[in-house]
Amino acid sequence: MKTILSTLSLLLTLSLATAQVKPTDTSTRGKTPALPEFSLSQAEVTAHLKFLAADELLGRMTGEQGNNIAARYIAEQFRQYGLKEVRGAAGYFQKVPLVKISPPKEAIIVWDGDTLRQGKDILLLGGDALTATASVVFAKNGIVDEKTGRDDYAGLDVKGKIVVVNLGSAEGADVREAFRLRDSKQKAAAERGAVALIELYNASVAWNFIAQFANRQTMQLATDEPKMNYIWLNDGSKKYAELVAKSAPIQISISTSGLLRQPVFSQNVIGVIEGSDARLKDEYILLTAHYDHIGVGQRPNQADSIFNGARDNGMGTTAVLAAAKALAQKPPKRSVLCLALTGEEVGLLGSQYYAEHPLVPLDKTIFNLNIDGAGYNDTTIVTVIGWERTTAMQDIEAGAKAFGLGIIKDPVPEQNLFDRSDNVSFAAKGIPAPTFSEGLRSFDAEISKYYHQAADQADENFNFSYLRKFCGAYIHAARRIADRPEKPRWVSGDKYESAFKKLYGEKETK
C-alpha cells in the first residue's frame, strides 16, 4: 500500500507540473515558430521521463504493476491533450492477451540407450504433458511452403509417430532462421498427426548458450498453438542424425510434464488526432514507441536491482507523448495515431498483436515512425534505422535539422537492428517503417554502461537538453510526413516493397 500511495503521489505531482509549466526555452525556434514543437518545454518532457523511469514503476515489466501504471499515465496524458479514443480501445487501452511460459519440471527422451534431460541435452519449446513411445520418421527440415511448392512431408506417414528434422532450413543451420521457422514447423507436424517433433541442434552457436537462453521463463501472445511436443535436441556430435539416416526402424520414448502456462494481460495505449485536411484525414501516420522495460533483477556486484529504462525506451515514450500534445494543438493534414506499445522487450509482442489486430485498417496507415534505441553516445545527431529505405528521408532529415541535429543511417548494419524493434511488425505488413533512435555511432562503452543496466536512470547523468531536441526533431519529422503531398514509399528494391504493393493494392512489376 505504501508503494502504491507513493506512486500515485508522484503521478499527481508530475501531472500538475506538466499542466502548469510554461515554455521558457526558445533556442530552437526556426522558420515556423508558430508550430507547437518549437515551444516544447524541457520541464515537461523531463517530468514525463522522470515519472516513467521512476523506481516506483519497478522497471515497467510487461504484465506487472509498474507496466500497468505507466500505461495509465500515458492514457491520461492522451486524455488531457484531447486525443480521441479509437474504436476497440476503450479508455485508450487495447488489451493484449499474453501467456507466461515456464520450462517443464521434467522432460526426458530415451534414445538408443541414452537418457536425455531438459536443459542439459534437450529443450522443450512447446507442448503439454506427454508420455509416449513411438516410431521415428525423418522429414528433412520439416518445412512446408506453398509459395515454393516445397513439402518435406511428401510421401511420409507421420500420424502417431515422432518426427525428427534437421535444424533450420536446407540452406544451413542458422539459429535466427531456426527460431523464425519454429511455429511453421510445429504446425506442419501437428496438422499431419505427429505425436512430437524433435529438431536436431547442430548450429555454430554453443548449445550451453542456447540452453541458458531457452530454458527460462518467457512470454508469448496467447494463441491456440498446437499442443504437440516440440523439442530441440543437442546433436553437435551428429550421432542422432546418423541414426535417423539409417534405414533400420527406430523407436524412442518421451516423457514430459509439459510447459507451464500462466495467462497474463497487458495493454497497448492508443489515441488518435484527426487530420485537418478533408481529403487526407482518412490516411494515418502511426507514431510508436514501446513503454515496457525489463523489470527487476539482481546482477552480480550491483546493489541496484531496478532497471529503470530511461533511455530504453523512456525517451521514446516521452517523445510520443510530446508529439501527441504538439500535434493535437495544431493537427497536420493527415490523421495521427499515437501508439505506446507493450511487450517489446519480451519479443515485440505488443506490435505483433496490433499488426494482426489493427484498430485502423493497415491500408489506411501510410507510415510508421517508430522510436527505440540502446542509448546515445553522440548528442549532436539522431540515428535513424532504415532512414535511407523510404522516400520520407528528406522529411526526417529536415525534422532533425530544425532542432540543430544531424542525422545518420544505421552505423552497425551487422546487428540487424531494423528487424529487432517494433517497426518490423509493421514493415512486414508493407508499411514504410524506420526507427528514429538516439544518437548512436557505435556500440561502445558509453552505450554498454546503460543498455539494459540498472544505471539507465533519469538522473544527473542523463542529458535532458538533448531529450528536448530529440523530441522536437521527432515531432517535426512526423508533422512533415503527415503533411507531404504524396504517400511515402519504400525505395525501389527494398525487401518490404512487395508487401507494400500487396497492402496498398499496387500491381507487381517484373
Strand order of the largest sheet: 10-1-13-15-14-16-19-17-18
Uncertain stretches: 1-9, 11-30
Shape: globular
CATH secondary-structure class of the largest domain: Alpha Beta
First and last CA, distance: 64 Å
Radius of gyration: 25 Å
Residue-averaged pLDDT: 91
Number of domains: 2
Number of strands: 19
Assembly type of the chains comes to single chain
Please tell me the CATH architecture of the largest domain by its name: 3-Layer(aba) Sandwich
Largest beta sheet, briefly?
Answer: 9 strands, mixed
* Beta-strand share of residues: 15-25%
| CATH topology term of the largest domain | Aminopeptidase
The CATH homology group name of the largest domain? Zn peptidases
Estimate percent helicity: 25-40%
Number of continuous helical runs: 13
Q: Which structural class do you get from the secondary structure elements?
A: alpha/beta
